[in-house]
Write a structure and sequence with these properties.
19 strands; 5-stranded mixed beta sheet; binds magnesium ion; alpha/beta
Length: 406
C-alpha cells in the first residue's frame, strides 16, 4: 500500500451544518450465517435487517445523500422501499462495493462528510450518527469510528503437538477496542484510501484511511451495533432492538353467572351447544366469554364489562359476546401489551363441556388472535350443590395473564 498519498485536512467553520452522505453496504451474501436468505433480508421485528439501517439514515436530519450498495436480489426484495436511495452494484468483495459507490459520488466535493455503514449492523441510531458527525465536523478530527471496549480476556490460540487448540499468551485487552460502523470520513480521504489500497483487501474503510496517515478519533460505540454474522446473532439483535421496552406481568380475574331458561340457544365460549336450556341475559349471555372479558379488563385495571357495555343500553340487546372479548383484546394491544395466557373454568351440571372444549379454545384463540396454546378451558360440576348443581344456572371464572409496558 502506498504511503505517499497526502493526507489533506479539511477544517471548515461551516461544516457543522452541511449535509452528510452515507454509503450503506448491503452486498454481502451472509454465507457464514447459513441463512437461506441473504442476512440483510432476514426479518428482524417488523422489517428486514437492512430496513433498520435505512430508517436510521432516512430519519437523520443531516443526511441528504443516500447510496445503497446491493445486488439484484436485494433490489427486487425492497422494490419501492428504495425511493430516495441511489443504488450501486455490489462487488465481489466489500472493498469493490465501496469503490462502486464512490464512482457514483463523483459530483460531491472532497470535503463532503461521508459515513460508511454495514447493513449487517441494524442497530444504528441517530445518537451514534450524531457523535460521528460532530467529531468530524468540528474540525478537531478528520475521521471518526465508533468503538467499544473488549470485555473478554483475549489470548492467542495455538496447536499443541497432538493437534489440540491450546491457550497461548494473553493479550492486554486494555489497549484493544472493537471497531464498529458507521465510520465517518471526508470523502477525499475515502477516495484516496481506496485508490491507494489497490487490491489490498480490508475488513473496513477505517484501516484503509488510517494507512494514509490520517488519525481516526474513537467515539463511543453502541452495544446495539452488534453485527449479524451467525444465526444466533439474530436472536441477540431481536432481544436488543425489538424488545427494548421493559414489560410487567399483570393478572386479572373474572367471574360471571347466568340463569338457565328453556327455549334459548346455549352460547358458551363463543360457540352454540345443543341443550334443552339456554342462558338468559341482555346479550347472548355467553357466561364464559363474559368471565374472560372481565379477566382481561381486570389485568388492565380497566373497569369491567358493564362499564364498557352497559346492560341498560339497548344497543347491546342480543349482542354476540365475541365483540366484548375482542374489545378487551384490543384494549391490551392499544396499551402495547400482549395476552400471555387465559385459563377458563366453566361450572355446569349439564351439558357436558368436555366434548366442546377444543372448539371453545379454538374460537377464543380466533377472537383474540392468539395461539390456541395460550387458551386453557376446563369444566367442572358442583356435585349437584347450589344453583349450578340444581341446573338453575351456569357459572364461569377466568384468569388472564398479560404483559404490559412499564
Ligand atoms: Mg354476563
Amino acid at each position: 500500500m502506498s504511503e505517499s498519498v497526502p493526507a489533506p485536512c479539511y477544517i471548515d467553520a461551516d461544516s457543522s451544518q452541511r449535509p452528510v452522505a452515507v454509503i450503506l453496504l448491503a452486498g454481502g451474501k451472509g454465507a457464514r450465517a447459513g441463512f437461506s436468505l441473504p442476512k440483510q433480508l432476514q426479518r428482524l421485528g417488523h422489517q428486514s435487517v437492512l430496513q433498520w439501517s435505512m430508517d436510521a439514515f432516512e430519519q437523520h436530519p443531516r443526511i441528504e445523500t443516500r447510496l445503497l450498495v446491493a445486488d439484484d436480489g436485494v433490489r427486487d426484495a425492497l422494490g419501492a422501499r428504495l425511493a430516495g436511495w441511489t443504488i450501486a452494484d455490489a462487488g465481489a468483495e466489500r472493498q469493490q462495493s465501496v469503490a462502486n459507490a464512490l464512482a457514483l459520488l463523483a459530483n460531491l466535493p472532497d470535503d463532503q462528510i461521508i459515513l460508511v455503514h454495514d447493513a449487517a449492523r441494524p442497530g444504528v441510531d441517530g445518537a451514534v450518527i450524531d457523535r460521528l458527525i460532530a467529531a468530524v465536523a468540528s474540525g478537531d478530527h478528520i475521521a471518526a469510528i465508533p468503538t467499544l471496549p473488549v470485555p473478554d480476556t483475549l489470548a492467542h490460540q495455538q496447536l499443541d503437538a497432538a493437534g489440540h487448540d491450546v491457550m497461548g499468551d494473553v493479550v492486554d485487552r486494555s489497549a484493544l477496542a472493537r471497531v464498529q460502523t458507521p465510520q465517518a470520513f471526508r470523502l477525499g480521504h475515502l477516495r484516496a484510501a481506496h485508490a491507494a489500497a489497490g487490491g489490498h483487501a480490508a475488513t473496513d474503510d477505517a484501516q484503509l484511511v488510517r494507512a494514509l496517515g490520517v488519525t481516526l478519533v474513537a467515539v463511543m460505540g453502541d452495544a446495539r451495533l452488534h453485527k449479524l454474522t451467525y444465526a444466533e446473532d439474530l436472536m441477540i439483535l431481536n432481544a436488543m432492538l425489538t424488545n427494548q421496552r421493559p414489560m410487567r406481568t399483570a393478572t386479572g380475574m373474572g367471574y360471571d353467572v347466568h340463569k338457565l331458561v328453556p327455549d334459548r340457544p346455549l352460547w358458551i365460549g363463543g360457540i352454540t351447544i345443543d341443550h334443552s336450556h339456554g342462558l338468559l341475559g341482555h346479550s347472548d349471555a355467553d357466561v364464559a366469554l363474559h368471565a374472560l372479558t372481565d379477566a382481561i379488563l381486570g389485568a388492565l385495571a380497566d373497569g369491567d364489562i358493564g362499564d364498557h357495555f352497559p346492560p341498560t343500553d339497548p344497543k347491546w340487546a342480543g349482542a354476540s359476546s365475541d365483540r366484548f372479548l375482542e374489545f378487551a383484546g384490543q384494549r391490551v394491544t392499544a396499551r402495547g401489551g400482549r395476552i400471555q395466557h387465559l385459563d377458563l373454568t366453566i361450572i355446569a351440571e349439564a351439558p357436558k363441556i368436555g366434548p366442546h372444549r377444543l372448539a371453545i379454545r379454538h374460537r377464543i384463540s380466533e377472537i383474540l388472535n392468539i395461539p390456541i396454546d395460550y387458551v386453557s378451558v376446563k369444566a367442572t360440576t358442583s356435585e349437584k350443590l347450589g344453583f349450578t348443581g340444581r341446573r338453575e344456572g351456569i357459572a364461569a371464572q377466568a384468569i388472564a395473564t398479560i404483559i404490559l409496558p412499564e
